[in-house]
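Review box. Two proteins, two foldings.
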Amino acid sequence: MSSLLMRRPDLAELPAAMAAIDLAGPGDADALARLLTASFGEPWDAAKVRSYLLDEPTVSQTFLIRDGDRVVATASARTLPERYPGAGYLHWVAADPEARGRGIGREVVLAVLQRFVVEGCTASVLETDDHRLAAIKLYLRLGYVPQYPDPDHERRWSVIFRALLGPAGSR
């Protein structure tokens, strides 16, 4: 099944990120691997982090939020101009499962969106999976809207919106 596409059609009037945001460096590869493994339930190691994030030429910056020595949230700013002209690609957003619900995902996403403005982007896109309802809810709150590049996306988004609205949405 293909990923779902969302787009924030403009980057005007972004709220400021309130959390202390750091930029990831080579020394953060192991901590990022632990966070991404915990967040996505698939194995990450330092080599994969370097390959997908830290050394990937399409990724301009990877942002972190720390809680003491622990990395608790991350998101990366990526550009794919041939695929998404004028738009920044929000890449690998993750929050530590034990730290969710504190707004750290929102903060790290805002840092990426502000980076896109600096880079001259006028919009942002992301890809996500149907079961990531908490992330989708965050993206909707931040102004992202569903896109329908594949014929089955309308049906899939309908299922997602029913899940997000819950029983009250069926009235």
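Next protein.
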Amino acid sequence: MTYLAGLGLAFSLIVAIGAQNVFVLRQGLRREHVGIVVLICAASDAVLVAVGVAGMGAAVAAAPLLVSVVRWAGAGFLLAYAILAARRALAPGGERLEASEHDAPARPASSARTAVATSTRTVVVTCLALTWLNPHVYLDTVVLMGTVGSTHDARWLFAAGAATASAVWFTALGYGARLLSGVLARPGAWRVLDGAIAVVMAVIAVSLAAGA
């Protein structure tokens, strides 16, 4: 039951739309460095939950200055990411997915510009920033889940359940996104997606800056 409690609580928190989930979804749609992104997100959550369960949740909650610093750093990063996404959405043409060797032939590019591959380093840095500069992640994993987990006798079993939920969710989100590849073969669809990403990132950035 303790394992299932951690699994259920983690799923209830992680499924909400956020900067991290949006990034994983986009990388999954691009079929680019998906394994690395999934690994970073799942491993980061596991580490943070473990830290919280170990007793750091109360310490973080008692350090408002640290939370404030992380909040402003996260807000600035998310706003910059929102601007980049907005530029992609407003750029003429737009990206489209290139079919892999196992897919149907790609449509003619016409005026569209083929999606430019992003370097592994850029993806890793972005993923780490979206994870570790987001105070919501600390509040959900270290503080909330850490506090709840510490109330269980088998708290490490609780942490294992939470880590499992994170791994399952990010794997499903990253690798399941390719099911939408047919729709996103059109450059117009990518402009809509990037526009939505820009809005989500900007809203989260404003909410962080406002202390929400």
